[in-house]
């Protein structure tokens, strides 16, 4: 028994030493102990980096798409909600032919027709076009025509023959519709209505009793199809030219009266605006517009 007690007692210091070393091996925050193994490194923030990268990528993609959309829309889209002014072609207003040769219906030389087609007075039209949307616009134009003159023949005595003095007014209205676009082009269908009025007279210097009062009327209903070309390829997208071909139903009325005698001519027609000669496409079919 004495031996066992002695062994236990003798072993107590060793136990105390071991316990003390175990306690000392633990960190004591109150004493400022900080072991490298006990300090965890800061957690990485991959989500923040990823989020920033994603945001940057999305912004870049959006900007690129927006730029591509702007480029693909072309010059035409720049002028939606804008007003353009310019020339909208030439209308040919019907009128009786006077000062003609023998065979005139009215004594003195006024004929309802001249070569089967009738005489005309040109009225260039000027107006405006406004784009309500990228697909539709409205346009209106007015034209004025005036003609007067005389012919002199000197063969011994001088003979002067007056030409008719004429004044014409033309009105144009249209509804341009866009069915396709490209960078500098807009392909359009333009339903339109044209009206024309002519008034005037003819003074016969050879016979005062043959003086005539003249009048004419034009009604056209139809449409044009063509392309509006913007000059954006030379940095002037505000300027545009439109070439088109039209298909119309038309009515032409002509009349002339001398005293109590009156003659009139009425003509209905249906056809394209290109008649006979290749260069007829430039008569009344070219519009020049400048947008603001």
SSE inventory with pairings:
Elements lengths: L1 H24 L20 H28 L9 E13 L23 E13 L5 E18 L3 E17 L2 E5 L3 E18 L9 E20 L4 E23 L2 E12 L13 E6 L1
Antiparallel strand pairs: 1-2, 1-10, 2-3, 3-4, 4-6, 5-6, 6-7, 7-8, 8-9, 8-10
Overview of the structural elements:
The protein has 292 residues and is α+β, with helices and mostly antiparallel strands. It has one domain: Porin (Beta Barrel). Helices cover 18% and strands 50% of the residues. It has helices spanning 2-25, 46-73, and strands at residues 83-95, 119-131, 137-154, 158-174, 177-181, 185-202, 212-231, 236-258, 261-272, 286-291. Strands 1-2-3-4-6-7-8-10 form an eight-stranded antiparallel β-barrel. A hairpin with a 4-residue loop joins β7 (212-231) and β8. The longest helix has 28 residues, at 46-73. The N and C termini lie far apart (120 Å). Residues 1-10, 12-26, 34-39 and 47-72 have low confidence and may be disordered.
Radius of gyration: 46 Å
- SSE order, one letter for each helix or strand: HHEEEEEEEEEE
- In CATH's first tier, which class applies? Mainly Beta
Tally of helical segments: 2
């Amino acid at each position: 028994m004495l031996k066992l007690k002695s062994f236990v007692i003798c072993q107590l210091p060793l136990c105390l030493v071991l316990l003390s070393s175990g306690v000392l091996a633990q960190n004591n925050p109150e004493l400022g102990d900080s072991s490298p193994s006990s300090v965890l490194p800061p957690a990485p923030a991959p989500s923040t980096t990823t989020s920033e990268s994603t945001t940057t990528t999305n912004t870049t993609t959006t900007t690129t798409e927006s730029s591509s959309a702007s480029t693909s829309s072309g010059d035409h889209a720049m002028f939606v909600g804008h007003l353009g002014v310019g020339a909208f072609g030439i209308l040919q207003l019907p009128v009786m032919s006077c000062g003609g040769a023998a065979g005139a219906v009215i004594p003195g030389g006024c004929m309802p027709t001249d070569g089967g087609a009738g005489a005309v007075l040109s009225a260039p039209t000027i107006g405006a076009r406004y784009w309500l949307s990228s697909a539709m616009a409205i346009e209106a134009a007015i034209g004025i025509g005036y003609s007067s003159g005389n012919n002199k023949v000197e063969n011994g005595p001088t003979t002067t023959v007056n030409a008719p003095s004429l004044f014409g007014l033309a009105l144009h209205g249209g509804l341009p519709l866009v069915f396709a676009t490209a960078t500098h082009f807009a392909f359009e269908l333009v339903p339109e209505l044209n009206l024309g009025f002519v008034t005037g007279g003819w003074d016969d210097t050879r016979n005062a009793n043959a003086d005539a009062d003249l009048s004419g009327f034009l009604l056209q209903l139809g449409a044009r199809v063509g392309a509006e070309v913007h000059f954006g390829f030379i940095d002037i997208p505000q300027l545009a030219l439109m070439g088109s071909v039209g298909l119309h139903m038309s009515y032409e009325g002509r009349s002339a009266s001398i005293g109590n005698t009156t003659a009139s001519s009425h003509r209905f027609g249906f056809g394209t605006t290109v008649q006979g000669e290749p260069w007829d496409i430039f008569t009344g079919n070219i519009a020049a517009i400048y947008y603001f």
